[in-house]
Amino acid sequence: MLISMEERGKCPADAGFVAVNYITCLPHYAERFEMLFASRARMIETMQGFLGMQVLRAEAENEPYLVVSYWQNKQSFEAWVGSPEFLEGHKRGFEDLRRAKEAGEQPPMQSRFVTYSVIAR
Predict the structure, then answer these.
(1) Helical (H) or strand (E) element with 22
(2) Residue 9 lies in a domain
(3) Residue 5 falls within a domain, yes or no?
(4) Which residue blocks in 1-121 are alpha helix, DSSP H?
């Protein structure tokens, strides 16, 4: 099934697979993290099976950001994570992590993926 550009970015009811990335940022890094998403490369939008994405900021302090992506199936998501487009889309954040590690500093953000199969609508 092909998804038009107008439909991409919506949270489709027909998604069969959802990936949620829980991202915790150090306080000084939150503004940078939000800027990275605001100016993102949008490489995910070129991927077969991608249906939409949301980036959520918690209203309560000290809660993780959620990056929720919607996919036709698990295979499409796995193809994204293993793709050159994934590396290109994340290179600035990965560079921030590399610099912190080289400086012996705590990583400015941490990420934890949880994936879900849709079982009911």
Answers:
(1) strand 17-25
(2) no
(3) no
(4) 30-38, 74-81, 84-102
Q: How many residues are recorded in the chain?
A: 121
Contact 71, 115 (CB under 8 A): no
Structural domains of the chain, count: 1
Q: What is the CATH number of the domain that holds 61?
A: 3.30.70.100
CA distance 91 to 31: 17
Q: Which amino acid is at 117?
A: S
CB 80 within 8 A of CB 41: no
Tokens of residue 121, six digits: 């609508």
* Within-domain flag for 21: yes
Per-residue pLDDT of the chain (121 residues; tens, 9 = 90+): 344 444 454 567 778 999 999 999 999 999 999 999 898 888 899 999 999 999 999 999 889 999 999 999 999 999 999 999 999 989 999 999 999 999 999 999 999 999 999 887 7
